[in-house]
Automatic annotation (TrEMBL), chains A, B:
Belongs to the RuvC family. The gene is ruvC. Residues 181-200 are annotated as: Disordered. Mg(2+) 2 binds at residue 68. Binds 2 Mg(2+) ion per subunit. GO terms for cellular component: cytoplasm; Holliday junction resolvase complex. Homodimer which binds Holliday junction (HJ) DNA. The HJ becomes 2-fold symmetrical on binding to RuvC with unstacked arms; it has a different conformation from HJ DNA in complex with RuvA. In the full resolvosome a probable DNA-RuvA(4)-RuvB(12)-RuvC(2) complex forms which resolves the HJ. This is Crossover junction endodeoxyribonuclease RuvC. It comes from Amycolatopsis marina. The lineage of its organism: Bacteria, Bacillati, Actinomycetota, Actinomycetes, Pseudonocardiales. Its EC number is 3.1.21.10. The keyword Aminoacyl-tRNA synthetase does not apply.
């Protein structure tokens, strides 16, 4: 399975494509950072990022897109741009019918380093090691994009299995409820018939 | 001039097209609200909204798009969705080469009611009156989209004039600086020539 990981951002947007092999083996296909000038129009910056992402989707043909889930605890201005960029990426994927999954920073850190509180340096070291890269990807946004793709490759099978199990149990619950409702209706119908009988 | 005003939101996205005539006269061309189900995938919701906005841009052919600028002071989850939707709208406009301007809620309120602290009801009343509508647009998101378009029509000429004046004064300052630098260079060259003269 091939995944495009995206660390969204207006100034620097990290893009990383990773192939997942058997077991936990992973291989880096491509990694880069798209930059847009801070003094450019917001709409133009979003357009540039959108074009870059579409180009990557066309070039590398990933089967899924993993995007970092943003929280607004941080700097307000940055977060808005990050959310807008993430939306643009999700849209480009949805246009191609690709699944998009948002992963939190701690999920990503935990997946590649074993700790949800790992720092940027640790993430970069582990990404470099896991992908057997000759040198560490820079800037951090590039390493983060690769980490997101790895996180998705490793978490997704489990996530999908849990979702399937939940859907199955919801279906069983639905059928059970339907049977109960049918039984209740049958009981009421019976009572009505009896009553009608006595009125006649 | 025709403007598409957008009150971005994942659950309800207000869209309103307004034509500006001579002076401050304005006329409503179309108004509606795009809804997406809260239980749908984020990427799918963004795709639906994007398709609706593109359809409106194709159908009504506005010359500019006005979007509400979001702040993250409010509910975190809502704000993320609003920012993502706003980004999608800006992208659709940029794809068509249309200018996109973000207006703050208080700018919009001030434009249509005279007060930046007006409430939703006042905005709806003024929008209904200004556009001479037979009945108030509902829900509030629809009225807000129309208010955004009106705000843009009234503020934009002033905003453009100010930007032009600023650009002109920056150009004058730049030329003045260049002349000063040239004079300084000429002065230094003169000194060098003199020195070279004495050395020979």
């Amino acid at each position: 399975m091939r995944v495009l990981g995206v660390d969204p951002g207006l100034t620097r947007c990290g893009l990383g494509v990773v192939d997942g092999g058997t077991g936990r083996s992973v291989a880096c296909v491509a990694v880069d950072v798209v930059r847009t000038p801070a003094d450019a129009d917001l709409a133009i910056r979003l357009l540039r990022i959108s074009e870059a992402v579409e180009h990557w989707l066309d070039t590398y043909r990933p089967q899924a897109v993993a995007v970092e889930r943003v929280f607004s605890q941080h700097n307000v201005r940055t977060v808005m741009g990050t959310a807008q960029t993430g939306g643009i990426v999700a849209l480009a994927a949805a246009r191609r019918g690709l699944p998009v999954v948002f992963h939190t920073p701690s999920e990503v850190k935990a997946a590649v380093t074993g700790s949800g509180r790992a720092d940027k340096a640790q993430v970069t070291i582990m990404v470099t090691r896991l992908l057997k890269l000759a040198q560490a990807p820079t800037p951090a946004d590039a390493a983060d994009a690769l980490a997101l793709a790895i996180c998705h490759l490793w978490r997704e099978p489990m996530r999908a299995r849990i979702a399937e199990a939940e859907a199955r149990s919801a279906e069983i619950a639905r059928k059970h409820k339907a049977r109960l409702a049918a039984a209740a209706r049958a009981g009421r119908a019976n009572t009505t018939t009896k009553r009608t009988g006595t009125t006649r």
